[in-house]
């Protein structure tokens, strides 16, 4: 799931998304050029049958750090992250699909947002996103 979330974020924002670290120079589409995001899986919980079995459900938590050279730029990236996760089409479907083999995202919610902070001249905006996932019958 995490790699699917990373790919969805990168595609929807048009900026690179690192997995637990700053994006590498070669990462698509923008390498480690600021602004970018970093995805940190925070674990999750399962309900029903064991996760991976037919009809199992999971609640997966992700932290997304939006990084910029100014507070405004970090907030702008955080706005792009929210749009990536929550924007809907005219039909009411999520505009950004999160596609992971054998899993279906059935719900999305914001768990927490810490807003912009600065460290060593680099601003970050922390968002925690919850995905509700199921493993439906094939």
Note down, in words, how this protein is organized:
There is one protein chain. The protein has 138 residues and is of the alpha+beta class. It contains two helices and five strands, in the order αβββαββ. It has a five-stranded mixed sheet with strand order 1-2-3-5-4. α1 (2-13) crosses α2 (71-86).
Give me the side-by-side strand order of the main sheet: 1-2-3-5-4
Q: Largest sheet, if any?
A: 5 strands, mixed
The arrangement of helices and strands along the chain is HEEEHEE
- First CA to last CA: what distance? 18 Å
| Class derived from helix and strand content | alpha+beta
SS field, number of helical segments:
2
Radius of gyration over C-alpha positions, nearest whole angstrom: 15 Å
Q: Which stretches of 5+ consecutive residues score pLDDT under 50?
A: none
The number of distinct β-strands equals 5
Shape: elongated
Helix percentage: 10-25%
Quick recap of the structure?
With 138 residues, the protein is α+β, with helices and mostly antiparallel strands.
List its traits.
2 helices, 138 residues, alpha+beta
Question: How are the secondary structure elements laid out?
Answer:
Elements: H1 2-13, E1 17-19, E2 36-47, E3 56-68, H2 71-86, E4 104-119, E5 122-135
